[in-house]
Design a protein that fits this description.
Chain lengths: 246, 550
């Protein structure tokens, strides 16, 4: 599971905090959708959850381990997909995935999953070509396979659907559902409301660094006083209200 | 959109000193770098001009003596043309055929000819100062010796402006052939490294000729009309008519002026038209080649598992070999002593080299001097002080791995040793053989050199661990234009002075040369250990996410 308690972060040379006193919890077996307009603090939150940024205040716990106390044990239990793929361009796809498997000490007997996953995402044909020759979508697929490869307990995905073809998007969504059934924890940010609506058990909406709404979609509808509102409408209402108060 | 508007837009977007770049520098509080860089360039250009003037005076005298007054201009145009030709090949590969904006430009409703013309204009703008650097001193020297007609100004202006066009267009055409061959386009790094190697060789040859000619010029000596150099230049005058026309146009030959202008214009037009017809095909071939590589490559078996340390070690190689700039820099630094020896043997007369060797032999502490020299060659490197910076945006990936800063540092140290240990051994062997060093010096040269390698690594990587430069767009910014490089070199020089002081201090206190060297080497070990420990602490801190990633 993932737990953030009173997490805050202010960047140097920035007046306002990017994330302000954020508290949230994602339980095992749950898919949590993290929504918010551009610049709301989604990526900063995610960077603090995976150890790319140190929070100024508060604590981050992943799989029962404090990120500050035991960062390597936390990273070993995490699968992360960044919003834009970060890869070593000179490596081939296979070499890169082997590099990830080596870094996460995946035993040789369990590495067959690499080809299976690559096949599922339509990468088999291109796996031995240098990553520099891949399209954005193919790089995103490699990033996703790299996150799934070591079968972690917790998955954190930043805009994972972005750039994927419909087939790969479908495969990913099915994978996430399956992982959730296996009791894994999935946290992902997205701008695609339809995906969040269909896939997530709970959603959290962040704006100006604050969590302005959180819960299952049905609860959010009740809170908003509408029965038939879509997540998109709710999102627009909530973020517009917030913008007006700012 | 006209070709001029297109050129202006590209210069504003990707030019070296565009408004956007200045704003970026300012936001990073690095605007002060610009005057420093300009001052450095001015000093460099000034020293080249100084040497050129000496060399050109000697050529002018030789030209007048042999009945070829155009001799000086021919040489100036030849050297300028050669440099522009060699440099324009990698530049055209980078800015035209492998340019990041190629897809954008070709998606616009513009004919390919206009795009090629704008790219040619951009490269012309970049190479014009280089041409003027070689050409204008020749005009100055000519005016010292001859009083020309007022109309002399016309060919001077014309040759100042049109002379770079022919070598530039030829270089760009060469690049289009290199890039068009599917095999070569896949080995772009190799092509670029070869270009840089050719340029270095040309620079060494040029520097060697310059220094020798400059000495002759300063001593008021004319070149021997029967010398090989004069005979070769006289033959080249006949073999390269376009250059001869350009040179003669400056000595009052109006027919040559017309021929030179017509030839240059015709060649430029033909070259641009040829490339305009070819560029779309070449770019399509690139895309197809990438597609073929992807399609062809299926079916390989998985790699054998590696330990995290081993896999990080090979990651270092993957990053270093990702651009020709990194590779060339690393190769130059690892091979600096052999390269310097080659350059010295070409540039400096044998008698002077023998004199230096004899002076060294006369000292009682030759071994200690060589020890310091060895450490200097091993310290002049930018590999560790830019180790994290070179990773650029992919540094974020390293932070997500369940591997500690210490493990990352260990892999970087191993890689540093893999690059520089062979250099240490080679350098010691070369110095021992060339300078007849006694075997006893090896007792401190090997261990001392090894400890110095680790100390240098620990000191300089600490600079990058504190503040890596991860937001570069051009690989040069990650290495040569990285302030960490300068700080790292400063630390290396300080360590070197301290080491030399310790060794010589012991020697002049009455210890033998060998014991003094040995004590220095032994002191280097704990120093290396302490600074490595410090670097480990810094690495743990850096890899725990304290850096605000872009």
């Amino acid at each position: 599971m993932i737990e953030l308690k009173g997490v805050s972060k202010t960047y140097r040379n920035a007046g306002k905090p990017a994330v302000d006193n954020l508290t949230l919890q994602v339980r095992p077996g749950e898919i949590y959708g993290f929504l918010g307009p551009n610049g709301a603090g989604k990526t900063t939150t995610i960077k603090m959850m995976i150890g790319l940024l140190t929070p100024d205040a508060g604590s981050v716990t992943v799989a029962g381990l404090d990120l500050r106390q035991d960062p390597l044990a936390v990273k070993a239990r995490l699968g992360f997909v960044p919003d834009s793929p970060v890869l070593y361009q000179r490596m081939s796809g296979r070499r890169f995935l082997s590099f990830i498997a080596d870094a996460f000490s995946v035993p040789a007997t369990e590495r067959g999953g690499m080809d299976t996953l690559a096949g599922e995402f339509g990468l088999s044909e291109v796996l031995d070509a240098p990553l520099s020759s891949y399209s954005h979508g193919m790089k995103q697929k490699v990033s996703i396979v790299a996150a799934l490869l070591h079968r972690p307990e917790v998955y954190i995905l930043d805009e994972p659907i972005q750039g994927l073809d419909p087939h790969a998007a479908f495969v990913l969504k099915e994978k996430l559902k399956k992982l959730c059934e296996e009791g894994k924890t999935v946290f992902f940010s997205t701008h695609i409301m339809e995906v969040a609506e269909r896939l997530c058990h709970r959603v959290g909406i962040i704006n100006h660094g604050h969590l302005i709404a959180e819960g299952p979609l049905s609860d959010l509808r009740i809170a908003a006083g509408t029965d038939d509102s879509t997540l998109e409408k709710l999102f627009l209402e909530l973020t517009d209200d917030m913008a007006a108060t700012h | 959109m006209t070709w001029l508007q297109l050129t202006k837009a590209q210069a504003a977007g990707a030019g070296l000193v565009s408004r956007g770049y200045l704003k970026e520098l300012s936001s990073q509080d690095r605007l002060w770098l610009l005057p420093m860089a300009l001052a450095g360039a001015a000093v460099g250009a000034g020293s080249v001009v100084f040497m050129l003037l000496g060399s050109y005076r000697s050529l002018m005298t030789a030209g007048l003596a042999t009945g070829y007054p155009e001799f000086l201009f021919f040489n100036a145009l030849l050297v300028s043309g050669l440099f522009i030709f060699i440099l324009s090949i990698p530049s055209a590969l980078a800015k035209v055929y492998h340019s990041r904006d190629a897809d954008l430009l070709f998606s616009l409703p513009l004919p390919p000819g206009r795009i090629v013309l704008s790219k040619t204009a951009l490269l012309y703008g970049a190479f014009l100062p280089l041409h003027l650097l070689f050409f204008l001193p020749a005009v100055y020297v000519y005016l010292e010796a001859v009083t020309p007609e007022p109309s002399f100004i016309l060919p001077v202006i014309l040759q100042s402006l049109i002379a770079p066009l022919a070598p530039l267009v030829l270089g760009m055409t060469g690049a289009s052939f290199l890039s068009g061959g599917s095999g070569l386009s896949r080995h772009r790094v190799l092509v670029e490294v070869s270009g840089m190697a050719m340029l270095t060789a040309a620079l060494v040859a040029f520097q060697s000729i310059l220094s020798r000619r400059m000495m002759a010029g300063m001593q008021g000596l004319a070149l021997d009309p029967e010398s090989l150099f004069i005979r070769l230049t006289t033959a080249s005058l006949k073999a390269l008519p376009p250059l001869a026309w350009g040179a003669r146009s400056l000595t009052g030959n109006l027919a040559s002026l017309a021929l030179s202008a017509v030839f240059t214009t015709a060649l430029t037009v033909v070259g641009i038209r040829f490339q305009s017809g070819r560029i779309s095909t070449v770019l399509i071939r690139h895309r197809e080649a990438a597609f073929k590589t992807k399609r062809r490559s299926g079916g390989r078996k998985a790699f054998k598992p590696r330990s995290p340390l081993k896999t990080l070690f090979f990651r270092e190689w993957s990053v270093l070999s990702s651009t020709s700039t990194f590779l060339f820099e690393a190769a130059g630094e690892a091979l600096i002593l052999p390269l310097m020896l080659v350059i010295f043997s070409v540039m400096i007369p044998r008698e002077i080299l023998t004199l230096v060797k004899d002076s060294l032999d006369g000292l009682g502490f030759k071994g200690l001097i060589i020890f310091d020299l060895l450490l200097a060659f091993l310290s002049i490197n930018t590999i560790s002080s830019t180790s994290l910076s070179r990773e650029g945006p992919s540094f974020a990936l390293a932070l997500t791995l369940p591997l500690s800063g210490r493990q990352q540092l260990r892999a970087k140290l191993l890689f540093h040793l893999a690059v520089f240990l062979p250099s240490l051994v080679t350098d010691i062997v070369i110095l021992t053989v060339l300078l007849n060093l006694p075997i006893s010096t090896l007792i401190y040269l090997f261990p001392g050199g090894f400890a110095a390698l680790i100390l240098n690594f620990a000191l300089t990587i600490s600079v990058d661990l504190k503040n890596p430069m991860l937001t570069w767009t051009n690989p040069q910014q990650a290495m040569k234009q990285n302030l960490n490089t300068l700080t790292g070199l400063g630390l290396s020089v300080a360590t070197l002075i301290l080491t030399a002081g310790i060794g010589l201090g012991f020697y002049f206190s009455g210890f033998s040369e060998t014991i003094s060297g040995l004590i220095t080497a032994l002191i280097l070990f704990p120093a290396a250990f302490l600074f490595l420990k410090r670097a480990q602490r810094l690495a743990d801190r850096t890899y725990s996410g304290v850096i605000e990633l872009p």
